[in-house]
Amino acid sequence: MPSQPSKDLETFANPQPERDYTIRIRVPEFTCLCPKTGQPDFAELTLEYVPEALCVELKSLKLYVWSYRDQGAFHEAVTNQMLADLVSAIEPRFMRLTAEFNVRGGIYTTVVAEHRAATWQAPQPVHLP
Questions:
Q1: Is 32 a catalytic residue?
Q2: How far apart are CA 99 and CA 76, in angstroms?
């Protein structure tokens, strides 16, 4: 197999570090294992962030997400661990990770975890007439 799962997150320089802008990445096929039953859990991840100096490289993100496929993890734990790893790798101004897990036993779970750099203030929204 040419690619293997990996916990290494590669980065590249933000091409517009002087500007606040949002990067949104949708990962519709996230899987991990239920730590209680060993059954697969499926989720759609949405990563939104305002970069500082670095951006996450997408192939490495794909391999990183893949690394959870055979790992048992509670929804809350895996979402917060992924956010912590991503924040550690790129130190964004702001980052939000939303994990929408598919139904299991008649229950849907959505976990939202956020990071905000201490020095960053969100810009005021623009309301057009």
A1: no
A2: 9
Question: Rounded CA gap, 97 and 49, in Å?
Answer: 9
**Set 8, 34, 55, 70: catalytic member:** 34
Question: Any catalytic annotation for residue 34?
Answer: yes
- So where are the chain's domains? 21-116
The CATH architecture of the domain made up of 21-116 is 2-Layer Sandwich (3.30)
Per-residue pLDDT of the chain in tens (129 residues, 90 and over written 9) = 568 999 999 999 999 999 999 999 999 999 999 999 999 999 999 999 999 999 999 999 999 999 999 999 999 999 999 999 999 999 999 999 999 999 988 999 999 999 999 999 998 989 999
Count the residues in the chain: 129
- Catalytic-labelled residue, pool 41, 55, 70, 85: 41
